[in-house]
Amino acid sequence: MRISEVTAHSGVPATTLRYYEQLDLIRSTRTTNGYRDYAPEVLERLSFIGVAKKMDLDLEQIKWLLDVTETGTCTNTRDALHPVLTERLREVEDSIRKLEELRVVLASSLEHVATCPDSSEPCQSECAFKSLA
Fold this sequence. Notes:
Blueprint: H1 3-10, H2 14-22, E1 29-30, E2 36-37, H3 41-54, H4 59-71, H5 74-114
Antiparallel strand pairs: 1-2
Helix pairs in contact: 4-5
Domain HTH merR-type: 1-68
GO molecular function: DNA binding; DNA-binding transcription factor activity
Keywords: DNA-binding
């Protein structure tokens, strides 16, 4: 398949395909006239990359996982993927906890700001954040 066909089937822009090729995430051969020629399996790799990106894995991790799946068995892939996903889940849960704490702080500050009385006096910078003190 030519790059335009891969783009049409996968929805991945040509610039991204070239970048993935530079990183050796996907491979192509060159035709005699210099066009990139991709094997049909590239669509499966792009799908894998897309799912891994949805899990917010970085491209280095994705390349490693692609190498594992390419050279190993399903058991090897599972055993390699499990700790990566476990760590990623821990990171997400930590982020959710921090965001929940932030939500509480913002809600409290919003409530405080909404109840500030009108005044013609200069506002004190700490006024909006008084509830946090």
